[in-house]
Amino acid sequence: MRLARRLVLLTAAVLALASPAAAAWAGTxxxxxxxxxLGWVRCANLSMGTQEDVYLYPFGNPQxxxxxxxxxYGGVSSYMPLSxxxxxxAVRPAGAAASSPxxxxxxxxxxxxxNYTVASLESGGGQRLRVLQxxxxxxxxxxxxxxxxxSTKDPQxxxxxxTDTLARDLASGSVTSYQTVRPGTPTVTFTxxxxxxxxxxxxxxxxxxxxxxxxxxxxLKIDNLTDAVGSQDTPKGGAATGFGxxxxxxxxxxxxxxxxxxxxxxxxxxxxxxxxxxxxxxxxG
Length: 285
Description:
Immunoglobulin-like; four-stranded mixed β-sheet
């Protein structure tokens, strides 16, 4: 009986580990949509100048980074799934050795179910990395829009969407908060002392967008990034220029294996009890 009791107690412990609370402890936090412990990160080169190589790796572990090679000005990667935790982004000139000093770098925390844009921006005469938290849920019947001012030729730009003015004299390197606008295909306009640009942009109801002010060959240039296409629906595609390397994989979900193990232990406990009863019956006969 002692062996059977031990098997039953062990089975109970295994089932406890398979519970949602234990899954969270094991690093596999269940979330709506089956995203588990994943966050989503994209990188954007919004600094004028030479091409860049962007390295993304878990903090303190640069041996196996995700590498975005030869990112041009205005290039934006796809969203990349990453396990929650701390990460480092390091930027080097295109083609530079991975062991060479980074031009700029930053570290940040990735949270489960949260989206981020890591943007290289010119601000105050220098280059820096900004980690932006992206909105993934839209507003019913409206579109959400924010603006990144990445023009250095025009240090102050006024941005309008349709009849709404989202930002006045927005300085280089600045990022606005998200604002609600009427959905549809309004004309986005950039107005600066040295130029003007306009372009119709599709903004469906419930979607989330980042409008980027860029320097083009003939003046200001408009870029429309889709952060989310609907409520909690993150686009997995994008203009992934030069994408390469291997992103860190999510930690495995232990719950199915634990449940299978517990079932085997229960069967073993049942077998032990049956065997003991059979022996008792034989001895009693």
